[in-house]
Amino acid sequence: METIGRDLLEMQRVPLAEAHVEAIRNIGSRAQYPAGVIIVRPGDPADRFVYVTEGEIEVVDVFTGERLVPSTLGPTQFMGEISFLSGGNWSTAFRAAQDTWVIEVPRAEMLALMARVPEMSDIIITVLAARHRRHLETGNSSLVLIGEEADRTISRIAEFAGRNRLPCASHPLGSEKARAVAVSCAADPDRPTVVFGTDMVVVDPTPQKIAKLMGLARDLIDDEMVDVLIVGAGPAGVAAGVYAGAEGLRALVVEDIAIGGQAGTSSRIENYMGFPTGISGADLVWRGEVQAMKFGTRFAMPLRVDALDQLGDRSFCATFSTGTRVRAKAVVIATGVQYRRMPIDRLDELEGAGIYYAATENEARFCRGTEVIVIGGGNSAGQAAMYLSRTAARVRLVVRGNSLAASMSSYLSSRLEADPAITIDFGAQVTAIHGKDRLEAVTIGRDGSEETVETCAMFVMVGAVPNTSWLADLVQLDEKGFVLTGADAGAASPHATSCAGIFAVGDVRSGSVKRVASAVGEGSVVISHVWAHVNAIS
After folding, report:
1. Any residues with CB less than 8 A from the CB of 83 and at least 6 apart, and which?
2. C-alpha count within 13 angstroms, C-beta hemisphere, residue 535
């Protein structure tokens, strides 16, 4: 399956050209770090580009002080993580292994140089992406979770980190590694804990706190004006962010859950053009996020828009859940849809403790060698079942209807039917769930009979509802709550709404084709209309 950023151990390093280095020298300043000095620590802002001219820099395990990876950074190489593009924070520590001289360039100046010299930009971004992937695959990070299997709060942090591609390490409660980390920061080794760096135990951990530590949560300037506010960071919103940045618009993308949206929960997309071996939804959208950041588009999350108002000068004011407000000349609604909750008693009590709405690597870990239940008859349910069948002993797909033909792509339904590890229960539905603190069993009803099945995981993918409650009466909606656009809204362009300056793209738009490729296309195309509107009112 296609991925971005192969492990650096598999890559042939491409050094920057002499002209690139000279350009860096012209805008940077020389600095020296004696042997043993920590250059950056986890949580420090990624506010500069560091190019090594002499000496050696090593990545350090913050808990042991030992070198984390065998390779080091020497002359012609550079420090950096993917967070540099977004203005986030460092997630690892770097130390001078010997007396070292570097050229340091402030982030803003370096990004401007990269925009002017795309050949240099491509080399830098490829290396940063590769390093990020290595951190994800190895779990080398200063963010450590202890006891996620025993605590729902910790498991939700793991889900948040996984869906947002944040490198983190997870150790079972009572394990040797968990005890070593706990001792290093004077934490109780027998209690579920979130640790960041060597001296910070995160009290009452929440996704918001983790996002702040990792640099995802931006401190937005109250009443800041942007050209376009893009609400939602699924395929449509990220595509809009790419094209907005490429067109020179000041763009801000906000997301309240995870970059990638619903598509980010898809383990394998096989019908997206250009990826014949398939690609995960998270990886596809992450490519777009990196691309958008390269063009200067900003991302902020987790951040929810509570209200949107139109001002007298035809601009808009978005009020976020934090109380901060941002003004925008145009707004792109790309909030997509969310899976419906089923009317089953105690469902909300066990969410994250056996009840899931996404089938990613994070959830699949708990399904190894067990029987799992997937509810739904659409592509998302089918992809989840296929993915989970790799680790689970058995996957039971529960479908209310009598066929998959009307709701699932043919290639996918054929694979499901041919997979010996997958059983499809047509004309069935889950009527009850069982378990005290975690899911232990579900009851499946069919033709007046019931069967109780022991399981530790149930994945609910039973249709979706639009995320439009925050729009109030500002734009016209259809009877199901989807945003009307184009002729249906009395607008000239196909993605314009009934309110001039507000556009809608992707699954949230009434009549849209519920496919990733369609969402990407709409997010790309809409920016030409946004650009025209912004210039008309400026």
Report:
1. 46, 89, 90, 91, 214, 215
2. 9
**Phi and psi angles of residue 214, each rounded to the nearest 5 degrees, phi first:** -85, -5
Tokens encoding 260: 């990638």
- Tokens, residue 493: 């362009």
- Pick the closest to residue 102 from 48, 29, 52 (CA basis): 52
Whether residue 90 contacts residue 41, with contact meaning beta carbons closer than 8 Å, is answered with: yes
303 is written with which tokens?
A: 């951040």
**Residue 273 near residue 516 (C-beta atoms within 8 A):** no
What mean pLDDT value characterizes the chain?
89
Q: pTM for this structure?
A: 0.86
Q: What domains are defined for the chain?
A: 8-107 (2.60.120.10), 143-214 (3.40.30), 224-338+465-537 (3.50.50.60), 348-462 (3.50.50.60)
What does 91-157 look like in DSSP terms, one character per residue?
Answer: -SEEEESSSEEEEEEEHHHHHHHHHH-HHHHHHHHHHHHHHHHHHHHHT-SSEEEE-TTT-HHHHHH
| DSSP label of 17 | P
What are phi and psi for residue 503, nearest 5 degrees?
Answer: -125, 155
**Block residue for tokens 């009395």:** 490
Are 143 and 166 spatial neighbours (Cβ–Cβ below 8 Å)?
Answer: yes
CA atoms within a 13 Å half-sphere pointing along the CA-CB vector of 63: 21
Per-residue pLDDT for 408 more than 70? yes
pLDDT tens digits, one per residue of 47-58: 999 999 999 999
pLDDT at position 11 over 60: no
Query: 428-456 pLDDT, tens per residue?
Result: 999 999 998 889 999 999 988 999 999 99
Question: CA-CA distances (angstroms) from residue 297 to 239, 244, 250?
Answer: 11, 7, 7
Closest CA to 244 of 505, 538, 531: 531
Closest to 230 measured CA to CA, from 515, 506, 510, 538: 506
| Number of neighbours of residue 217 by Cβ within 10 angstroms | 19
| CA distance linking residue 105 with residue 359, whole number of Å | 41
